[in-house]
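Annex B. Sample input.
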Amino acid sequence: MKISVVQNILEANRRIAEENRRRFSQNRLLVINLMSSPGAGKTSLLEKTIRALNTDFRIGVIEGDIQSTYDAERISRAGAPAVQINTGGACHLDSNMVQEALKSLELDPLNLLFIENVGNLVCPAEFHLGEDFKAMILSVAEGDDKPLKYPLMFHESKVLLINKIDLLPFCECNPDLIEERARRINPNLTVFRVSCRTGEGLDRWIGWLREEVREKRQG
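Annex B, continued. Sample output.
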């Protein structure tokens, strides 16, 4: 019975996600579902990304948190319109929450939409929101064993950003091992090593993202 209920929930979520996807496609809007554990650096990455791309593209953000509007306020100060979703305890966003949030966000002018999911390495990977792809952030402070412990997140993601590489001298973490283990799960994973604090590696991420947005606009 429990399995049947879970399947029904996921199927209902999938149907609404497809509605979201059709709406995004009509606008030729690139949509990225950004996931990580709490504190890995999602909002910091978005701030840097928005400031780097704001002169070329219009960017919007849907912010998912259990409570507060703190991250949405940071995003607004960085220069992008942001809509806050407070789940009130739920450990992930679902497609219905995103669909409701879209009522408060003007899509026509946008080229790129980030959906910053709730900090969690488990549930967000299971719920499609209508995005073009999922991207995940893993900080080196979390260790190099995470692909072994949370394989679904790595399997479902198109992009892995290994963040906080400036902390490597102080962590028992091997980024080569992260990549090796992640690619065993997902050989097609695109990997960037970055530091949102120092800016190291962000130029590669920004350049790659520019091409993805341009391809979407031309397609």
